[in-house]
Amino acid sequence: MAQDFDADVIVVGSGAVGSNAAYELARQGKSVILLEAGPSVPRWKILMNFRNSGRHYDHNDPYPNNPWAPTSYQPGYLQNTGSFEMMPGMLKLVGGTTWHWGGATWRYIPNDFKLNSLYGKGRDWPIGYDDLEPYYTRAEYQLGISGGDGEDQSGTHKGQAYPRRSKPYPINAEKFTYNAQKMHDALGTQDYAMCTEPTVRIHKPWDGRPACEGNNNCDQVCPIGTLYNGSIHADKAVRAGARLITEAVVTRIEVGDGKKVRSVSYMTPEGKETKLTAKVFVLAAHSFETAKLMMMNEVGNSSDMVGRNLMDHIGIGMDLMAGEDAMWSGRGPVQQLTIMNWRDGDFRKEHSANKTALANGNPQISLAEAAINEGLMGKELDARIMRDSARYQFVYSFLEMLPSPANRIQPNPAWKDSLGNPGIKIHFDVDDYVKAGAVVAREMYQDMAKRMGGTIAKIHGFENHDHLMGTLIMGADAKDSVVNHEGRSWDHDNLFVASVGVIPAAGVVNPTLTAVALAIRSADVIAKEV
After folding, report:
1. Other CB atoms closer than 10 Å to residue 272's CB: what's the count?
2. Which helix (H) or strand (E) holds 319?
């Protein structure tokens, strides 16, 4: 007798990755249920919260932080035990954490997929660039990305368009802002390999999204809906036939005959529990939350790798006071210009790669705070803020981390939310490979400042960038990885993981586009099987 299912596929998590998987499956005629722990919140409400908060430096502040679905900034929810404090800006609402992000959407280059084979460090991917290229293209057109088609994004193929692309970007690259152009003019003719940051912050209308008006607060909330976030594809999935259930905190995963996942159960804010069955399940609830859920239920972890191998693009940054008084950060796009001299090469045998970029955020709050701490007041304070705001530039570097089982997350039963679910314990240390790469980045900062005729006000120490890879690591061997090249669990053939957490080699570029491409690839596999 055939078993009745509530859906062909259940997707847990409505962020950019999960919602793209749900949309692809619904578009291909599959019945889909999309579960989200948080609520659905309209943009106008988030924008009003942002304007009224008075805490514009707190990127999570405008967003819901419910007792049954806490964000990462909920006191106690994340407990750090290592030498580095990992505190990502994780959200829980329809659309996920891409409600507040810079929007950079890079492809990995071919050598990133074979780090161990080429350089003897870290891990290789179980697939290569050519395997993922068609899905990169599909992801770029779904997200609507602006980028430079003819540019070398590797730093090693001067004068060539690299990596290979089967289609141009949906939208061409925007012209540089004044301060980006000045940096390009100062460094681009002096052996600095520079290119445009591909982004979902678009300068032309695309798929119902308007062109950017230069509000420059992408990291908090885009006021007009230019910046892509996962709610766009959650809505598309619903229009394609998927069923979206919000405020549904998945707590249980039940495994049945043949080690197949039989059901998931979710709890409402009031504590009511509902069980749902499906042929296939996709876990896409953030790399931390997915790993926690799997460990809570002892699912998919025969390798003991769930939650381990945590990587981020740990980075450093430089406060640079330019030599001219007309740079004025904070006008236009939050990021554009990228330096790729240290993205790839034999040096990766010795130290991490880096991606260095100009951040074009508004610096007034931090500059004012620094001047006040010096004791300045009145007209002197005003003059200092005006002077430093005109000259200030912030340059930052992502550093390539290697996977280590010792860097991990685990459920933390010592802290519980209103439904009795545990918080998260994190152990994270910065490795020597990154530390050696930071030395190179600091030397580059000194050279940049000299060539631009500026002075370095400060070099910032290590900080995280919310690129939480490795906790659900992909591999070619079930003994040391969580999922295979399809994103399928080694232990349960009807369980897939869609997340930046499956990425096995961090590289130095923002991983969201890669995770979406992998999710679309997994969706194609699933669609053939159900």
Report:
1. 8
2. strand 315-321
Answer yes or no: is 52 within a domain.
yes
- 2 — pLDDT class (breaks 50, 70, 90): low
Containing 424, the helix (H) or strand (E) segment is strand 422-427
Q: In whole angstroms, what is the distance from residue 200 CA to residue 207 CA?
A: 12
Active-site residue, selected from the candidate residues 59, 313, 351, 467: 467
User: C-alpha distances in angstroms, 210 versus 100, 143, 224, 471?
Assistant: 17, 13, 7, 36
Annotation says 467 is catalytic: yes
Nearest CA to 409 out of 98, 122, 81, 91 is that of 81
User: Cis before residue 198, ω within 30 degrees of 0?
Assistant: no
Measured CA to CA, the distance from residue 521 to residue 297 in angstroms comes to: 26
The amino acid at residue 457 is A
Count the residues in the chain: 530
Residue 134 Cα distances to 104, 130, 145, 473, 521, angstroms: 19, 8, 15, 22, 9
Domain-located, residue 135? yes
Q: What sign has the CA pseudo-torsion 111, 467, 480, 137?
A: negative
Please give the mean pLDDT across all residues of the chain.
95
The sign of the CA dihedral 196, 198, 200, 203 is positive
pLDDT digits (tens, 9 = 90+) for 429-483: 999 999 999 999 999 999 999 998 899 999 999 999 999 999 999 999 999 999 9
Please give the structure tokens belonging to residue 447.
Answer: 């050279």
Decide: helix, strand or coil at residue 518: helix
Radius of gyration, alpha carbons of the chain: 23
Residue 48 has pLDDT above 90, yes or no: yes
Residue 1 inside a domain? The answer is no
Domain encompassing residue 126 = 7-529
Within its chain, how far is the Cα of 150 from the centroid? 25
pLDDT digits (tens, 9 = 90+) for 332-388: 888 899 999 999 999 999 999 999 999 998 888 889 999 999 999 999 999 999 999
The 10s digit of each residue's pLDDT in 240-269 is 999 999 999 999 999 999 999 999 999 999
Task: State the distance between the two ends of the chain, measured CA to CA, in whole angstroms.
Answer: 17
CATH number, position 465: 3.50.50.60
- 437 Cβ contact list (under 8 Å, min separation 6): 342, 351, 352, 353, 354, 399, 400
Residue 118 lies in a domain: yes
Decide: pTM greater than 0.90.
Answer: yes
Question: How many domains does the chain fold into?
Answer: 1
